[in-house]
Amino acid sequence: MAGYNHLFIPGPTNIPEQVRQAMNLPMEDMRSPRYPELTLPLFADVKKVFKNHNGRVFIYPSSGTGAWEAAMTNVLSPGDRVLMSRFGQFSHLWVDMAERLGFEVDCLDMEWGTGVPVELYAERLVADKAHKIKAVFVTHNETATGVTSDVAAVRAALDACGHPALLFVDGVSSIGSIDFRQDEWGVDCAVSGSQKGFMLPAGLGFLSVSQKALDAAKTARHMRCYFSFEDMIKTNDTGYFPYTPPTQLLRGLRAALDLIFEEGLENIFARHHHLANGVRAAVSAWGLKLCATEPKWHSDTVSAIRLPEGIDGVEVIKHAYRAYNTSLGSGLSKVAGKVFRIGHLGSLNEVMVLGALGAAELTLLDCGVKIEAGSGVAAAINQFRSAAATAAAKAA
């Protein structure tokens, strides 16, 4: 087909040209005397994205899943009790990993379309007088259902009852795109991946840890090798890695971080909220509903949109790709065939979002969904223009 593929899945996201060009270079010696000139500032700058001032970050050649395994196996011991909740495919995968790694998982199953049940967490923590729960897990942004949960509220629940459990956060589709404050929220292990808000190909797993987690790792008894904190610290402190690092991805990371700091994290968060509001306006104009059951759960990085009865989401995704060369996100697990997803994170602006909405409208109409042509795009345009006018009035 003429033109290029339009990528509107919630990751991997679009890669800025500056980042692509930064990775287009010959192979280099990852043990050269000059390599720490690249790596040491990277460690420091990734910490800034997590807003971690007192701990340290690890950059693994892996996906976010690898970084999750690193967090669990370095900081916890076999048989430790952990409190988790499951309300989407990715929160389910973290539960599955914890069980397979031999932890005692106390899992709260919630409705898909809701998020972390803070009140139920608080009840479990208050009842745990012996402090058997060693870690509490929060999926900050459930990518499968377009739901964002309140990390700060979970920290408040821990503090209210004086519980010493560690706080683990999956921020794969939130960190770098949605407000996240590791130190302020008392997060001990925060995980992200390169292919979302960091605007890179998949292949880097980021794990940002507190000093409390680093101290816990010194006595934790789980077996680990590839993901060992000890091995990483020993070599990272001098600017190197215990194994071959993905050199080109690290060059891309440098360029991506430069773009992030040039725009400013707070501006990035505001941009994502602005773009998400446009998508939500379109969904409302179509007469459809989000998978997120209430506005308090709405994600600023991905919208999962429920389809009417009788419309197969699998066919919607296929038709968008074949007819309009556009990649939309599919429904996963329990919502497979029931939703389609629009990813609105990373290197994205209003015109790109309008393109996603236009392709979605064409596809929905072709697949028999009763919407008015142009309604969603028009609603998004009005939302964007209204927000711009309000911002201009405030600045005046």
UniProtKB/TrEMBL annotation:
This is Serine--glyoxylate aminotransferase. GO terms for molecular function: alanine-glyoxylate transaminase activity; L-serine-glyoxylate transaminase activity; L-serine-pyruvate transaminase activity. Pathway: One-carbon metabolism; formaldehyde assimilation via serine pathway. It catalyses: glyoxylate + L-serine = 3-hydroxypyruvate + glycine. Its cofactor is pyridoxal 5'-phosphate. The keyword Protein biosynthesis does not apply. Pfam families: Aminotran_5. Substrate binds at R341. Its EC number is 2.6.1.45. The modification N6-(pyridoxal phosphate)lysine is found at K196. Signal peptide: none annotated. It is an enzyme of class 2 (transferase). Keywords: Aminotransferase, Pyridoxal phosphate, Pyruvate, Transferase. It comes from the Bacteria. InterPro entries: Aminotrans_V_dom, Aminotrans_V_PyrdxlP_BS, PyrdxlP-dep_Trfase, PyrdxlP-dep_Trfase_major, PyrdxlP-dep_Trfase_small, SP_NH2Trfase/AEP_transaminase. Residues 45-286 form the Aminotransferase class V domain. Belongs to the class-V pyridoxal-phosphate-dependent aminotransferase family. Transmembrane segments: none annotated. One of its GO terms (biological process) is glycine biosynthetic process, by transamination of glyoxylate.
